[in-house]
From TrEMBL:
One of its GO terms (molecular function) is tryptophan synthase activity. The keyword Glycoprotein does not apply. It comes from Enterocloster clostridioformis. GO terms for cellular component: cytoplasm. PANTHER family: TRYPTOPHAN SYNTHASE (PTHR48077:SF3), TRYPTOPHAN SYNTHASE-RELATED (PTHR48077). It comes from the Bacteria. Its cofactor is pyridoxal 5'-phosphate. Keywords: Pyridoxal phosphate. This is Uncharacterized protein.
Length: 66
């Protein structure tokens, strides 16, 4: 259910990117902390030939390189 609700953002991103550039992006990335944002963004692009990258925070504090 969450995937389907969050995928609205991914479908809109895909649609607007195609309208603006006439082609698909080389890569799609999203934060993967809990997974709901990323699966929603990635779902519309899963059948397209591109890199899909999940980014997660790493570190111990709020300082750069901490």
């Amino acid at each position: 259910m969450v995937r389907d609700f969050q995928s609205v953002v991914g479908y809109e991103a895909r649609k607007h990117f195609l309208e603006m550039t006439g082609m698909m992006p080389d890569e799609v990335c999203a934060c993967v902390g809990t997974g709901s944002n990323s699966i929603g963004m990635f779902k519309p692009f899963l059948d397209d030939p591109m890199d899909i990258t999940g980014v997660e925070h790493y570190g111990y504090g709020d300082q750069f390189m901490d």
